[in-house]
Amino acid sequence: MIYIARNAKDVAVSYYHFYRMAYGHPEPGTWDEYLNTYMEGNVAFGSWAKHVKGWWEMRKKHRLLYLFYEDMLEDPKREIRKVMKFMNQELPEEIVENIHKNTSFQAMKDNPMANYSTFPFMDHSISPFMRKGIFGDWKNQFTVTQNEIFDDYYQREMSDTDLTFRM
Known about the structure:
By secondary structure, the protein is mainly alpha-helical. It has a single domain (2-158), classed as Rossmann fold (3-Layer(aba) Sandwich). The protein contains 9 helices and 2 strands, in the order βαααβαααααα. It has helices at residues 8-21, 31-40, 48-58, 69-74, 76-86, 93-102, 105-109, 112-115, 144-158, and strands at residues 2-5, 65-68. Strands 1-2 form a two-stranded parallel sheet. The protein is globular. The relative contact order is 0.20. Residues 1-161 form the Sulfotransferase domain. Its EC number is 2.8.2.-. It comes from Staurois parvus.
């Protein structure tokens, strides 16, 4: 198993936009309303903290590679090599380069097989499925007060683990 975790603040922003555009999810309301719902864990995948911590613990009992989205953005080839090592594969550098090229955010955003542009249950006029693919976009969405409240939530939820995220 390969698990990719992303920091809680960027997940909140990403998931808010997903809720807005994907049919079948409840109306998220305002950003402020949604952020409270998210912190309460009343979203489709449940509590972010329980989810990431559960997989973090599972890696101790099962063969599981735990990766971080932020690391993938920072150095994609390094993370590709981690996956190769985990899968006991050695590939020539040109194959690594090809994987890197074809799994870049822009390549996937342009690929209908990855961007869900032909998927009938999403309204891409509201938001594309693959929006920005960046780290730290939460800074463009959170108010100062929301950030303070969220930091308190994060400290409470993550106080019982050594798992840490870059925000």
